[in-house]
């Protein structure tokens, strides 16, 4: 079997780190199995869907290293959905309902008050042609429900009907269709809800595995029934846990700050974001993984926890720094140049260990080329004046710092922090930073002499 998976976002806004979790799961599953990854835009809501959001989602996926084998838009496939709806109507499995939202809510409230589950009573199936015509004459438009197969011929006498599947994340799962209302597939205005277009597309595109969030578990029994009603074999399902913050807050409330675009603009590395999104909430250690290929070797749907995947956005900082500290110059050269930092490899190898983000290198570029702002303590002036005189002659190399500080120690008697800190602050304007033995050759003799009083 050739594996085909899909990621089906709605282009009604920018995607955030929680949205990207199922996208990465599907992409990594396709990579591991040699399968096909489809990006399928759920843009049937023509009013809210925007091309700019679709383009932004494609850009965000590409930045993360996800490159779809195929891109489709549901807004271009309405004829297929209409055809499937006609099939269900002719089979008596899609029926019109005329209740208003208020009427349905009153029925649900009444059922709860009587201690019964608020399941739709299928009253619309009892409507006569005359009653339907009267509703139409009043200007009511029907919404359309799918008749669940939870009865033995009499839809008003339901029986327990278990739909079971083996979930690749959650193991054996069962949904009783008798506990559910017949789902609405088509709204009063004739537009489709998510369910039918998704199933029709999965069938038409040969989707073999549906990997998505656990918030869809309850829908799966219904969807399996619709697959079968359309004469198709349902795909394999995997429902993973959802990302939340450490206090359990849903990411949808914070998606602005955690949107992929904002994380990219803030200087985070794509693999830091991908590592956090994929490994959080699994039995794998959450650590920075440098490539998508390596992340794929660690990815395992069976390792996903059943409990919520809580993470701290601050974890990104540590993961990002770990990746930056190990980046070769070839990986960052063009990015540094685009920032106005035109440097050679020794500079990057010297400063990368002190950079949490690649953009931090600009700070050390400024330190090297100046000007540097540093307030010299009065008690250090005599010491720094001596340092000027004791600076070794010749080329400034990685050996110069050790030779220079040894001379100063012998001359002034200073040692430890009292020896090194005044020099670092005078030469870099900073109390911390890269090793001074490596920084000194980059700063150069002219700047060294100019920065000492």
TrEMBL record:
Its EC number is 6.1.1.17. InterPro entries: aa-tRNA-synth_I_cd-bd, aa-tRNA-synth_I_codon-bd_sub2, aa-tRNA-synth_I_CS, aa_tRNA-synth_I_cd-bd_sf, Glu-tRNA-ligase_bac/mito, Glu/Gln-tRNA-synth, Glu/Gln-tRNA-synth_Ib_cat-dom, GluQ/Sye. Catalyzes the attachment of glutamate to tRNA(Glu) in a two-step reaction: glutamate is first activated by ATP to form Glu-AMP and then transferred to the acceptor end of tRNA(Glu). A motif ('KMSKS' region) lies at residues 250-254. Residues 3-317 form the Glutamyl/glutaminyl-tRNA synthetase class Ib catalytic domain. The keyword Protease does not apply. It is found in: Cytoplasm. Belongs to the class-I aminoacyl-tRNA synthetase family. Glutamate--tRNA ligase type 1 subfamily. Its main location: cytoplasm. A motif ('HIGH' region) lies at residues 9-19. One of its GO terms (molecular function) is glutamate-tRNA ligase activity. It comes from Roseibium litorale. This is Glutamate--tRNA ligase. Keywords: Aminoacyl-tRNA synthetase, ATP-binding, Cytoplasm, Ligase, Nucleotide-binding, Protein biosynthesis. It catalyses: tRNA(Glu) + L-glutamate + ATP = L-glutamyl-tRNA(Glu) + AMP + diphosphate. Residues 377-452 form the Aminoacyl-tRNA synthetase class I anticodon-binding domain. The keyword Nucleotide-binding applies. PROSITE patterns: AA_TRNA_LIGASE_I (PS00178).
């Amino acid at each position: 079997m050739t594996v085909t998976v899909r990621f089906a976002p709605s282009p009604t806004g920018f995607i955030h780190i929680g949205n990207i979790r199922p996208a990465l799961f599907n992409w990594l599953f396709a990579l591991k199995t040699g399968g096909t990854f489809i990006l399928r835009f759920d843009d049937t809501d023509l009013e809210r869907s925007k091309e700019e959001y679709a383009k932004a989602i494609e850009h965000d996926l590409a930045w993360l290293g996800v490159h779809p084998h195929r891109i489709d838009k549901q807004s271009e496939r309405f004829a297929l959905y209409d055809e499937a709806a006609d099939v269900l109507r002719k089979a008596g499995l899609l029926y019109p309902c005329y209740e208003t939202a208020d009427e349905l809510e009153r029925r649900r409230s009444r059922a709860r008050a009587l201690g019964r589950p608020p399941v739709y009573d299928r009253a619309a199936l009892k409507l006569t042609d005359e009653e339907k015509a009267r509703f139409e004459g009043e200007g009511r438009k029907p919404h359309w429900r799918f008749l669940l197969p939870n009865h033995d011929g009499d839809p008003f006498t339901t029986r327990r009907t278990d739909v079971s599947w083996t979930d690749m994340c959650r193991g054996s799962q069962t949904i009783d269709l008798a506990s559910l209302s017949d789902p609405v597939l088509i709204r009063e205005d004739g537009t489709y809800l998510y369910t039918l277009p998704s199933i029709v597309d999965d069938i038409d595109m040969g989707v073999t595995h549906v990997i998505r969030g656990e918030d869809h578990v309850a829908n799966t029994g219904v969807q399996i029934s619709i697959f079968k009603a359309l004469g198709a074999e349902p795909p394999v399902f995997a429902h993973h846990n959802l990302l939340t913050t450490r206090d359990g807050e849903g990411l949808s409330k914070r998606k602005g700050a955690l949107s992929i675009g904002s994380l990219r603009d803030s200087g985070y590395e794509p693999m830091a974001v991908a590592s956090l999104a994929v490994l959080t909430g699994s039995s794998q250690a959450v650590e920075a993984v440098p490539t998508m290929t390596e992340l794929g070797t660690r990815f395992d749907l069976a390792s996903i926890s059943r409990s919520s995947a809580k993470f701290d956005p601050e974890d990104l900082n540590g993961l990002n720094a770990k990746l930056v500290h190990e980046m070769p110059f070839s990986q960052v050269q063009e990015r540094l140049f685009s920032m106005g930092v035109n440097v050679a490899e020794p500079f990057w190898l010297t400063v990368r260990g002190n950079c949490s983000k690649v953009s931090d290198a600009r700070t050390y570029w400024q330190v090297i080329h100046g000007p540097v702002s540093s307030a010299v303590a009065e008690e250090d002036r005599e010491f720094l004046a001596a340092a000027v005189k004791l600076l070794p002659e010749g080329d400034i190399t990685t050996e110069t710092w050790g030779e220079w500080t040894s001379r100063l120690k012998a001359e002034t008697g200073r040692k430890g922090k009292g020896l090194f800190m005044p020099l670092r602050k005078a030469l870099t304007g900073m109390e911390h930073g890269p090793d001074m033995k490596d920084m000194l050759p980059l700063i150069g003799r002219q700047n060294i002499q100019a920065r000492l009083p």
